[in-house]
Amino acid sequence: MHIRYQRQSALWALLVMLLCFCLGGGAWYYFFVYPRYGIHHEELLAPDTALRLVFKPVLVQKYVSSLAPTGSSLIPGIPKVSSMQTMHFRTEWIHKMPFEISFLLDQRASDQLGVLFFVKEHPSSESFADLLESGGFFSRTRPVIWERGRISSYGSRSLVASGTVHIPRTAQEQLSRLHPHYAPLQAPAVQGYHFLEAALNNGNGTLIELLGAFDTPLRPAIQQKTKQELIALSPLITEVFMSISLVKADLLQIRVKIHCKDSSDTAEVLEGVLNTAYDVAAHAKGEGFTLYWDGDREGDKVYLEGELSDFESKIRRALGGK
């Protein structure tokens, strides 16, 4: 009888241990593994969302953490100051970066684009909202005009902020001339499996609106002549998808796929986008980076592939290292 009781107790103990293991493993998967890939903003998509820009910082977490000083991962809140910094820089967050940072732009009106900013926080990180607001994010991201100048909680460990960006009159006139017929849009597809993904539905000429609205920040990287070439090419382009992945230390791989309306348009589109890529490469060289591009076309698609390097030392210094 005593032996039977011991066996039952051992069996119950084993079952409890298995249950705890399953619950613990499930919780670990749900909070730390599952959010690493895919996207988490689908339910927030506004009608006529034309651009989705998705960052997955967690996919480069190990690499970025390796560039930071060792102490910054052990002692939270210690500011690191380097020659590249003009103020204290909080470093504790870089060791538990967000699972997702997204910008969603929609064509809500003829004179403006709607902007939704979304962050899926790491479940055990410091408050990313505090980091954004103390760092002056909302005052530095012009030309976006944020509605409240702050970010709000949304669901479990998610943050959102809304804003608009004005489309200049010149861009509005170019849009009316080159894309005279407006049609409802489907949000372009993203996957969430790369460090950065950008997807554009250009059915209503969002490319022209973006080039006009962000003319000032883009001006150093894209020459005015190249910008006008892109605007003229807009009616030939239906969709654009770009991905950026960290393939090894100090090397990012950039891939761009452009869908054209017709296969006869690809030669002209390839020339135009290569001119843009070469402008960006020249600007990158002036900033101390190395960027190479190659392009090709197949059927009604244009492909670009680039490699960006020589950024590691700048990140290391920015994080307080040497």
Please characterize this protein's 3D structure.
The N and C termini lie far apart (70 Å). Strands 1, 2, 3, 4, 5, 6, 7, 8, 9, 10 and 11 form an eleven-stranded antiparallel β-sheet that branches. The chain is an alpha+beta fold and 322 residues long. It has ten helices and eleven strands. Strand 10 (290-298) and strand 11 (301-309) form a beta hairpin.
Mean pLDDT: 86
* Alpha-beta content class: alpha+beta
Number of helices: 10
Q: Supply Rg.
A: 24 Å
Beta-strand content:
25-35%
The topology string of helices and strands comes to HEHEEHHEEEHEHHHEEHEEH
Query: What's the count of strands?
Result: 11
Query: CA-to-CA gap between the ends?
Result: 70 Å
Main beta sheet: 11 strands, antiparallel
Shape by Cα distribution: globular
Spans of at least 5 consecutive residues with low confidence = 22-30, 74-88
**What is the share of helical residues?**
25-40%
Helix and strand arrangement:
Blueprint: H1 2-33, E1 49-55, H2 61-67, E2 100-109, E3 112-120, H3 128-134, H4 137-140, E4 145-146, E5 152-153, E6 158-166, H5 169-178, E7 196-201, H6 206-213, H7 215-218, H8 224-233, E8 237-248, E9 251-260, H9 266-286, E10 290-298, E11 301-309, H10 312-318
Antiparallel strand pairs: 1-2, 1-7, 2-3, 3-6, 4-6, 5-6, 7-8, 8-9, 9-11, 10-11
